[in-house]
Design a protein that fits this description.
Blueprint: E1 2-4, E2 12-15, E3 21-25, E4 32-44, E5 48-53, E6 75-81, E7 88-91, E8 100-105, E9 119-130, H1 147-174
Antiparallel strand pairs: 1-9, 2-9, 3-8, 4-7, 4-9, 5-6, 5-8
């Protein structure tokens, strides 16, 4: 799976003139695990941050939020990365599947040896994999209980209770 950023000239210019980020939305039913991004142009440095929405809301809230309070509003910081001064693919291994991803200039949150200044790059694409139906770690689930197994377990439990009840009644009669 690859998503490209379409903007004037094909790349999205991201620079630390404030802190810019791009929200990738893959739709509520589509969970994606992003594992890398590609920069088409870099000037100076390209430190970047990656966030995934892991909250309970159907849509990822961003209105009136700052980077410092994203985690208390359902966002998980995947990591802060030193992108270096070269173009190309920047990998960030993780096991999170989400419908919403935020990729942008390093913004000062979290820890690590990232310098947080002079970060200029053009985000060319993001790469990852989509969640296969029933794949572990993708969240969700059918919410259904398997009826035959449940009924069998209930039946065995009732037979066990009846047997214990008879033994208890017989032991009382013997006394």
């Amino acid at each position: 799976m690859q998503a490209s950023v379409a903007h004037a000239g094909g790349d999205l210019n991201i620079a630390l003139q404030g802190v810019d980020s791009v929200l990738f939305s893959f739709g509520n039913a589509n969970k994606v695990n992003l594992t890398s991004t590609s920069f088409g142009w870099v000037q100076g440095d390209s430190d970047f941050a990656v966030w995934a929405y892991t909250g309970l809301s159907a849509t990822a809230p961003l209105a009136n939020l700052t980077y410092s309070n994203l985690t208390s509003n359902g966002w998980t910081l995947v990591g802060n990365y030193n992108g270096g001064s070269s173009t190309g693919t920047k990998t960030f291994a993780n096991s999170i599947y989400s419908s919403y991803w935020l990729v942008g200039v390093y913004n000062g949150t979290g820890s690590g040896a990232i310098d947080g200044g002079n970060d200029y790059f053009k985000l060319y694409s993001v790469n990852g994999s989509s969640c296969a139906s029933g794949q572990a770690g993708c969240g969700g689930g059918s919410g259904q209980v398997p009826e035959p197994g449940t009924l069998l377990l209930l039946g065995v439990g009732l037979l066990g209770l009846m047997r214990m009840s008879r033994k208890l009644a017989m032991s009382r009669m013997a006394i």
